């Protein structure tokens, strides 16, 4: 007897267009932010634009593919993806250092692959698959909370060894959010897990000199303006110069070798310089729309698996966007978290777009009575 295929409805078009707006802005701003740097380093002002366009096309193709595949089918690949994640994380330690950290696997002419970008979604998939079966057991710390803290903590620890506290933190924050949505007691999380995470983060910050210096320079970047405080000061200059309306596309001064690699983690500062407060507000508005539509998709999902998976995917993008914008505006210590869909990066963009395909597929299979 054949199983009935799930009835597919229309995707959430607000989410769909929001993703494409962010992607389009990203491509334009990567070109604008990187053109001077690319001409200086690669003798081709469009070097990074060409690469970002290639990855964007691939990402869109992957998103459309994942959008057409029933998200329930991903469940059976959970264990395989977790197993594959381990050797990928280990392989990073045998790759060359990039800016003092081991986070990437070299793929020759294809560029670099960052396993942590995949792992954060694998952890979400594992939690959604497993928590769906827990039900009321999620209220019990030993059965419903501790196992996920151990698994997420293990993967976060592996990433932490790569000197990537930022992505490790994203994984643990998203784990906390998904556990809460799955039914874990707020008292257990609020009075037990959150303080423990805060204590662990404090320990890891002060256990490495460069992290401690970043924290102290965040409090007063001008105490070392030519060293650890340099990038944040240049970000302030860029945001300040932009004012309300900005200097105009392509008119940034900070991208002319003042801001290190302006097309990467600090691209929001260049957006502020060229598009001003209005441009920054537009980006923030798009991310707010993304989060609200993601919550809507999660609440409207036909089952617990869809709800938890949509929650995790939305949370990853939301947490990264918050951290990136907070860093660029000097609201938290400098850390290496890219701005989703906008910062330059191949593997990160393609993996994010694949996750968006899954999220949009969940939006096609909604329980009408649960929709809001």
UniProtKB/TrEMBL annotation:
GO biological process terms on file: cell division; cell wall organization; peptidoglycan biosynthetic process; regulation of cell shape
Membrane topology: Multi-pass membrane protein
Name of this protein: Probable peptidoglycan glycosyltransferase FtsW
The entry's keywords: Cell cycle, Cell division, Cell membrane, Cell shape, Cell wall biogenesis/degradation, Glycosyltransferase, Membrane, Peptidoglycan synthesis, Transferase, Transmembrane, Transmembrane helix
Annotated pathway: Cell wall biogenesis; peptidoglycan biosynthesis
Keyword Membrane set for record: yes
Record field: transmembrane: 12-33, 53-71, 145-161, 167-184, 189-207, 266-292, 304-329, 341-362
A Pfam family assignment: FTSW_RODA_SPOVE
């Amino acid at each position: 007897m054949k199983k009935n295929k799930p009835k597919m409805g229309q995707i959430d078009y607000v989410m769909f267009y929001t993703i494409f707006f962010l992607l389009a802005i990203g491509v334009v701003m990567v070109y604008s932010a990187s053109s001077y740097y690319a001409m200086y380093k690669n003798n081709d002002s469009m070097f990074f634009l060409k690469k970002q366009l290639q990855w964007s096309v691939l990402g869109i193709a992957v998103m459309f593919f994942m959008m057409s595949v029933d998200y329930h089918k991903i469940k059976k690949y959970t264990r395989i993806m977790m197993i594959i994640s381990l050797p990928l994380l280990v392989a990073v330690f045998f790759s060359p250092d990039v800016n003092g950290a081991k986070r990437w696997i070299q793929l020759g002419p294809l560029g670099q692959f960052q396993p942590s970008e995949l792992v954060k979604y694998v952890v979400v998939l594992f939690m959604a698959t497993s928590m769906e079966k827990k039900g009321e057991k999620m209220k019990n710390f030993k059965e419903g909370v501790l196992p996920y803290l151990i698994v997420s903590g293990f993967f976060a620890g592996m990433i932490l060894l790569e000197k990537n506290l930022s992505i490790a933190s994203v994984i643990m924050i998203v784990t906390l959010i998904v556990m809460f949505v799955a039914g874990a007691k707020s008292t257990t999380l609020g009075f037990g897990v959150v303080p423990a995470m805060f204590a662990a983060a404090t320990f890891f910050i002060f256990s490495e000199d460069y992290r401690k210096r970043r924290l102290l320079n965040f409090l007063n970047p001008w105490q070392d303006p030519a060293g650890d405080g340099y990038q944040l000061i240049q970000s302030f200059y860029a945001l300040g110069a932009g004012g309300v309306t900005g200097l105009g596309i392509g008119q940034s001064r900070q991208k002319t070798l003042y801001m290190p690699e302006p097309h990467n983690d600090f691209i929001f500062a260049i957006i502020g310089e060229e598009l001003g407060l209005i441009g920054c507000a537009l980006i923030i508005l798009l991310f707010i729309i993304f989060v609200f539509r993601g919550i809507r998709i999660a609440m409207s999902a036909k089952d617990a698996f869809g709800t938890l998976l949509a929650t995790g995917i939305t949370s990853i993008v939301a947490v990264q966007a918050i951290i990136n914008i907070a860093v660029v505006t000097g609201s938290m210590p400098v850390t290496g978290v890219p701005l989703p869909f906008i910062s330059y990066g191949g593997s990160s963009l393609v993996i994010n777009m694949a996750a968006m395909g899954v999220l949009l597929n969940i939006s096609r299979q909604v329980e009408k009575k649960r929709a809001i």
